[in-house]
Design a protein that fits this description.
The protein has 88 residues and is of the alpha+beta class. Helix content is 40%, strand content 15%.
Length: 88
């Protein structure tokens, strides 16, 4: 799943790409879509706005940021901010 590009950093907007199934699924999807591993932040990948459409065409579900977070938490895959910093 991928949320809307609303997060500003480095002069551009970013989306979050995440899985509510497994990190293996997330990594496989990201690798197939050509995302570099450095874009991974413990429980999601950061995706520049201009690549969002490509992620949707590859099969990512468009969801709101709120829905992405809700599903990530419900799946048990959501990390705390401190855990995400340690994971990257």
């Amino acid at each position: 799943m991928i949320d809307e590009p609303r997060w500003w950093r480095h002069e551009r907007r970013w989306s979050h790409l995440a899985s509510d199934v497994s990190l293996d699924e997330l990594h496989e999807f990201a690798a197939a879509a050509g995302l570099p591993r450095r874009a991974f932040h413990g429980d999601h990948y950061d995706v520049p706005e201009e690549y969002r459409e490509q992620m949707l065409e590859a099969g990512a579900d468009a969801v709101s940021s709120r829905e992405l977070l809700r599903r990530l938490v419900a799946s048990g895959l959501r990390l705390s901010p401190a855990a995400r910093r340690r994971a990257t």
